[in-house]
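Morning!

This is the sequence you dropped in the shared folder:
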Amino acid sequence: MKVALIANPYAGGKKVGKLLPVIEKKLAAHHIDYQTHLSCYHGHILKIASDLNIKQYDAIAAVGGDGSNFHVLNGLLSRFKPEKIPPIAVIPVGTGNSFARDLNIHTFEDGIRSLVKNNPRWVDVCSFTQGTKKKYFVNILGLGFATDVAKTAQKFKFLKNFSYLIGVFYRAARLSCHHMELEIDGKPVSQENCFVEFCNSRFTGGNMLIAPDAEIDDGFMDIIIAEKVSRTTLLTTLPQIYTGTHIRHPAVKHIKAQKAIIKTWPGKTLSPDGEIFGVTPTTISVHHKMIRYLR
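The structure's back. C-alpha cells below.
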C-alpha cells in the first residue's frame, strides 16, 4: 500500500510537526509505503493535493485538523473526478478534528489504523458557491455567531478546544444578529438570525454536538438555525450543544435538506470546515456518496 501523506506542520499548535516522525515510524512498522508532503503556507495543501499523481497512491492522508482535510478535499476535487480519487484518510492532529469523529477516528493512532484496515466508506460531500466557483466541505459550513467564534478561536489555536470557549464568550459580549433570506429545497425562510449551520456531520469545534441527527451518507445536510436571541439566552443555551439538546429550544430550527440558497444583510463571512473563507450569498448542495474516506 502506498500513501500520500499531506501534513500541515503548524496544525494543532504545531503538534503535527512533533508527531509526524512518530506517525511515519508507525506506518513503516505496518509496511505502509508513504511519501510525505509538507505544507509551507496557508493554502499550500490545496496545491499539493491538486498536483499529486493520484495513480501512484492507494490512499491520500490528511494529517492535521478539519482545515487540512478541507484543503486536501478541495485540491483533489479541483482537478480529478471523484470516482478516480483514492480513499482519503484522516489522521487527526488538529484543533477541532470534528469530521473524524463521524468516521470513529479520535486519535492519530485511529487514523493510522484506518490505513492499515483500508476499509473505505462512500460519504456525502457538500458544495457551496462563490460567484461562478464551487468549493466543497464534509463537516460543516456556518455563518453568523458561530463563524465569529471561529474567527476568534483561530487566534487561540494553541489552546485546542478551549479556543472555541474563548471565542464563544468574547463574541457573546459583542453579539449582533442579521437578516436572512433562506430558500430550503424551494421553501422560503425569512427572519432575523443569530447563526445558521449547514451540517454534513454531527460535530463542530471538536466535541460540540451541533447536529445530533446528521449522517454523512444519507444524502441530506442538517440545517441548524438559531433565531435572534438575547445574550443571556444564548449563553444559557450554548452548553446544550455539547449534548445536542439545543435543538429542542424554541428559538432553534432543525431542517434536513438537499439544497439551500442563502442571502444575508449585511453580507456574512462563511466558515467551511473551520476555515474562514467566502461570504454570502451562496448556494449549498449535497452530493450523495461523492468521495471515499477510510474508517
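Headline: The mean pLDDT is 94.

More detail when I'm at my desk.
O.
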